[in-house]
Amino acid sequence: MKMLPTSLVLVTAVIAQIPSHAAGPRVPPVPEHQRTAEQQSLAAQFASSGMPNAVATYLNHASLAEHILPYERYASSDSTLPPRHRALLALRTAWLTRSNYLWAHKAAAGRRDGITSDELRRIAQGPDAAGWEAFEATLLRATDELHVDSFISDATWQALSARYNTNQLIDVIDGVGAYTMHAGALNSLGVEIEADVPDRLPTGIPYRIAATRTNIRLTGKDPRIPPLDPKEWTPEQRKRFDPNGTGQRAANVFVTFVRNPPGDRLRGGVTGHILNSTTLAVRQRELLLMRIGVLCRSEYEWAAHSRLGRRAGMTDADVDRIVAGPDSAGGDPIEIAMLRATDELYRDDVISESTWATLAKTLNTKQLLDLLVAVGGYRGVSMAINSAGVQLDANMADFRFPPSLR
């Protein structure tokens, strides 16, 4: 399997700086006196998050906010993981993504869950820092592996499985995926930390990732989390997957993550918005999802969305360009900018000033928000599919990765 140079992933991540946005946020929060009834309701519903500037910024696209905010709340407060473990995943993700806003808020929450000031600095130092209990070091290492490889290694998976059940294993991946999505959005939107929130990313600590890019995947092997057998389906699940009682096969991705119903329902709200309610054109959406599938080496996502991309009018040249990336020749300028934005979010967890300026000439605020969530949301989905070992569906044979990516 072809590997990306590890040095590219690590060095550019060290160099990348989150823009200061000295002139203010790229997308300002919706002021209270300008909010519609729907926006007011959403703000009240998620006031307990303690992140008013983030919530108010997402209110620029209310139908998006009503799906991504419940998923964040689940990952931060309601998942099957112990609160301290959720805090470790959130804070390590904030450090890896250089998200000052996410760190500021998760540090405050972490203190309430027993994280000390010394441990906050140790989280930034990573899983190899002295003093970690073995399982907590494993959680931090899983975060690093998902960040750089979109996959949890065999050794780390085995260590997690020794203590966690299937729901908890899924919640580890979903938690890192959700925090990564929000970090890329918060960084790119320039959401400002509230005046009464004192924590910031620790200083004086070298940026190191305790993982490397491997591109090892489980395609053609036994899944780590097997699909739920139809004999085990609840009546609700049977109505969803086989409403006519014909014995039809459900997509492996759906009958894998349905094992964790609360997380599956809320993640489904995010992906449902991306697929059914986005303000982007179908071709634009599929371009983003195909490119993040390439970057995450998620063949399942590539197969699903390259098929949809073809239906949206993509040619062989278009598909080749998505594989090659934004520096390939030809292509529509806005599509090239979208490819570049996807690469920047994957590599740097922020869209650069120049790429943002190019996108903002054509896309409106809702479209920009939909772009951020499409890339970040499906980066998280790819992490889950890769790590669970979801196998290709039978109807994907004609839409597999090109040989250069296998």
CATH topology call of one domain: AhpD-like
Span between N and C termini?
Answer: 5 Å
> What structural class should be given to the helix and strand makeup?
mainly alpha
Pattern of helices and strands: HHHHHHHHHHHHHHHHHHH
CATH class of one domain: Mainly Alpha
Please give the radius of gyration in angstroms.
20 Å
Tally of alpha and pi helices: 19
Shape: globular
Sheet with most strands: none
Estimate the helix proportion, in percent: 55-70%
Can you put this structure into words, describing what you see?
The protein has 406 residues and is mostly helical. It has a domain at 230-405: AhpD-like. It is 59% helix and 0% strand. It has helices at residues 6-15, 37-45, 52-58, 62-78, 83-96, 100-112, 117-125, 134-149, 154-161, 166-189, 235-241, 252-257, 261-276, 282-295, 299-311, 316-324, 333-348, 353-360, 365-388. Helix 4 (62-78) packs across helix 10 (166-189), helix 5 (83-96) runs antiparallel to helix 6 (100-112) and helix 8 (134-149) crosses helix 9. The protein is globular, with a radius of gyration of 20 Å. The model is unreliable at 1-17 (pLDDT under 50).
What keyword list fits this structure?
406 residues, mainly alpha, AhpD-like, 19 helices, 59% helix
In short:
The protein has 406 residues and is mainly α.
Q: Layout of SSEs?
A:
Blueprint: H1 6-15, H2 37-45, H3 52-58, H4 62-78, H5 83-96, H6 100-112, H7 117-125, H8 134-149, H9 154-161, H10 166-189, H11 235-241, H12 252-257, H13 261-276, H14 282-295, H15 299-311, H16 316-324, H17 333-348, H18 353-360, H19 365-388
Helix pairs in contact: 4-10, 4-13, 5-6, 5-8, 5-10, 8-9, 8-10, 10-19, 14-15, 14-17, 14-19, 17-18, 17-19
